[in-house]
Amino acid sequence: MEIFQADTEIFAGIDTEKVLDQISCKKYFFMTDPMMEKIGMSKKIEDILKRKGIVYEVFSEIEVNPSLDSIKKALEKVVEFSPEKIIALGGGSTLDSAKAVSYFMGRSGIELPVIAIPTTCGTGSEVTSYAVITDMKNMVKIPIKDNKMIPKIAILDPEFTKTLPKSVVADGGIDALTHAIEAYTSKGANLYTQIYALYAIKTIFKNLLKMFENIADRDSRVEMGKASCIAGFSFEKAGLGINHSIAHNIGGKFHKAHGRANGVVLPYVIRFNSTDLETARRYYEIAKELELPANTIEEGAKSLAIAIEVLNERLGIQSCVRDLGVEESLYRSLIPEMAEVAMNDICTSGNLKRVTLEDMKNIFEMIY
Ligand SMILES: [Fe+2]
User: Fold this and answer.
1) pLDDT tens track for 141-195
2) Both 172 and 64 in a single domain?
3) If residue 333 lies in a helix (H) or strand (E), which one and from where to where?
4) Rounded to 5 degrees, what are φ and ψ at 8?
5) 21 CA from centroid of ligand 1 (Å)
6) Are residues 294 and 170 in the same domain?
7) Would residue 197 count as lying in a domain?
């Protein structure tokens, strides 16, 4: 049986004001982060709402890793203000925060749909049912998953990605690529999720470097916005794999950007997973689609790993954990713990190739 249902209405490459014109809402809770305020992006939304004479309240106390405390604060304001909808403008953290607020309101019987306007191209959070919140007191990340959290509307407006720093373009783009490749090769993949994943992979290979090298190129920003969103659709349904399980540890333990950690790990994981014939065959299919050398399954899988190494290099993404500036003795001492945590990460269960704790330790050794 194969099921595919997309729940978010997507507006791509369009002016946000035109989309908001079509939505009937008299009272918005507008969630954004301090950076968006600083660079004047949030003002663009406020100007639209002012022009339309819509009542709104701004909440911009969102951290890089959104905490339970800031969600609580936002919830208190929402209860006091009683808006009809949330507009979320920002990266994954802001969208996740808005989704969490919507989730908790929903638990108390109040529906609060989210309109997501991503300002990075990567997480796919605008179409997924996941949000990650950090409990600062106990220093644990709390993943929430609920279909009701999927944003009702996503606006992929290239206006909001035109000042992205290069490193953020690289990290986001490679994160989206990892989503698509892991989704294509995951246990939960089916025809529908694979069509989405393959489209995302091709689009990212065609546009990520263009966007990285020239952020003024509107077309590549539009295409990357669509690709990361479509990759999000795909992994939402198909799941991910050990690349994310490993990257979650590198990111969490050494405070490295999520996308960057994924990019560093990706070629190693492709080579490891290629020892499984079915996974290798899927890498080969991707390689063929990208017109890489792929006369045999083995050659195709190898070509994909090499193509990602080349892409990483051009994006300035390091080729090993050492080059991320992680100290060796500390890293090595943490391998047993990280391998254990990675084994229990929810993404590991989606990996087609069976992985043992020993395998996991070996991969952690190799990537250093
Ligand atoms: Fe990711």
Assistant:
1) 788 889 999 999 999 999 999 999 999 999 999 999 999 999 999 999 999 999 9
2) no
3) helix 328-344
4) -105, 135
5) 32
6) yes
7) yes
Ligand 1 center to 333 CA (angstroms): 26
**CA 186 – CA 139 distance, rounded (Å):** 30
**Cα separation, 210 vs 212, whole angstroms:** 5
| Listed residues 132, 161, 190: the one ending a domain | 161
Distance 175 CA to ligand 1 centre (A): 5
| Ligand 1 centroid – CA 261 distance (Å) | 9
Other CB atoms within 10 Å distance of the CB of residue 358: 9
259 CA → ligand 1 middle, Å:
6
CA of 176 to the centre of ligand 1 (A): 7
pLDDT digits (tens, 9 = 90+) for 219-231: 999 999 999 999 9
User: Residue 351 and residue 334: Cα distance in Å, rounded?
Assistant: 23
Give the span between the Cα atoms of 326 and 57, in whole angstroms: 42
How far, in Å, from the CA of 314 to the mean position of ligand 1?
20
Q: Residue range 277-282: average pLDDT?
A: 98
Query: Residue 173: inside a domain, yes or no?
Result: yes
Q: Residue 137: is its pLDDT beyond 90?
A: no
Task: Examine the fold and report which residue of 161, 185, 209 is the final residue of a domain before the chain moves on.
Answer: 161
| Average pLDDT value for the chain | 94
Same domain, 35 and 179: no
What is the distance in A from the centroid of ligand 1 to the CA of 178? 7
Percentage of the chain beyond pLDDT 90 is: 89
What residues have CB less than 8 Å from 213, skipping those under 6 apart? none
* CATH assignment of the domain containing 226: 1.20.1090.10
17-39 pLDDT tens trace? 999 999 999 999 999 999 999 99
